[in-house]
Amino acid sequence: MAGGYNHEQAIKNLENLNIRIDPHPDQIKWMFALDLDKPIEELKKAFKSNTRNLINKALKSGIKIRELKKDELKDFYQMCSATAKRKGFEHENKPLEYYEDFYDCFKKDIKYWMAELNIPEYQKTLKSQKQILEKTLAALEKSPVGNRGRIKEAKITIEGIDKRLEKAEKIKEEDGEKIQLSCGMFILSGKREVVYLIAGNAEKYLDLNAQYLIQWEIINFAKKHKYQRYNFYGISGNFDKNDPAYGMYEFKKGFGGYVIELIGGFEMPVTSFYHLHKLRSKLH
Fold first, then answer.
1. What are the tens digits of pLDDT across the range 140-154?
2. pTM, rounded to two decimals
3. Which of 106, 167, 239, 254 makes an SS bond possible with 48, Cβ 3.0 to 4.6 Å?
């Protein structure tokens, strides 16, 4: 990639030592990262306009993000498991004990965040927005000349609020007054970077855009605590828009930042069992 390091000679040196590229390494090869060397508003300004709009929309919805305690990690696990199944990543799914062990090992250097929405508070916010718009609309309709565009826009916005109020009432009836929307697992690495390791989203509520808000909040956290970089972590490395994993890259790309290509994973055969193991892996 432009501005990166060329590791071709290093790879050749390893191959000359009979150290081979692992075609299916546990370590990722491609990452996406954002340097935090600018004021937070400048960073936000560099986001794609659609990403900014969805963040602002989520902020107005009253979504709250809180840190989970160890005895609440079951909720995190369930959301991540459902997301892995939906996306066809079940082979990468982790058991609940995995998250609990991480919690115990990293202690203050790990964050489990959950984005939640209190439906009654959300309804109250929407009703307040609607009242303000209705007053604005009434004033505009008294002097319609030159205001037809603004009148039309206000009516469309009010209709949108009514639809969201209707949906909020349905959610409350079906799922209760508090719903969980999105979650993220973040590792705090010294003062160098915050790493976004694992995430999950409630498919039913993707349109509330909590997945964007949780990213915005962790970027703010990293900036406030003087971390140098926010690491969105893995992407597929396939930049073809038709690739099934392209959506993950596109989501992360919306926050600005840049692609990082790592040297990759390697393995060194030390006994003849290496070849038997490879053959066995192919048969399975």
1. 999 888 889 999 999
2. 0.83
3. 254
